[in-house]
Amino acid sequence: MTSLGLVLLVLGALVAVTEAHYPSHGIAGGSGVVLMAVGAVLAISSAGAGLLLALLAGAALATVGAGAVVFTVGRGMATRSRRVQTGAEGIVGHVGVVRSWTDASGSVALDGAVWRARRSPGIDDDDEPPPQLHAGDRVVVERLSGLTLSVRPAEEWELM
């Protein structure tokens, strides 16, 4: 029984570590904790200690392991709800400064880099053309297409 308990301890630890590399939302981690707890009870009780001591050790191991699994799964789930901060998705909504502008396109300084930019197609209620952008104007990125930003003039509330 001692060897079975040790095998279950090692197998449980491997399954619990697998959770870190292949997230299963706590299923593998929970199964590993249960295997380790059962292995601890079998190993301790068959080594000559009393059953009560073996059960207490298994319960302590299961409690600590379950707490670690709940903590890591909770932190992993919390990162899924965060806003993207890198890549094409992360640049949308940033405010940049126009460096130069012609009729339909120009260059914009944004987060320490200079980007090619074009005006975003907007929905205008009136037939007036949108105001021309000039160097120094603040713009908001609405989309990224390849290496070209689609921008619109920043509104007052976006600059605060």
Overview of the molecule:
With 160 residues, the chain is an alpha+beta fold. It has two domains: 2-80; 87-159, OB fold (Dihydrolipoamide Acetyltransferase, E2P) (Beta Barrel), CATH 2.40.50.140. The chain contains four helices and five strands. It has helices at 2-21, 27-46, 51-80, 87-91; strands spanning 95-101, 105-110, 113-119, 138-145, 148-153. A five-stranded mixed beta barrel has the order 1-2-3-5-4. Helix 2 runs antiparallel to helix 3 (51-80). It is rod-shaped, with a radius of gyration of 29 Å. The mean pLDDT is 85.
Question: Which SSEs are present, and which pair or pack?
Answer:
Layout: H1 2-21, H2 27-46, H3 51-80, H4 87-91, E1 95-101, E2 105-110, E3 113-119, E4 138-145, E5 148-153
Parallel strand pairs: 3-5
Antiparallel strand pairs: 1-2, 1-4, 2-3, 4-5
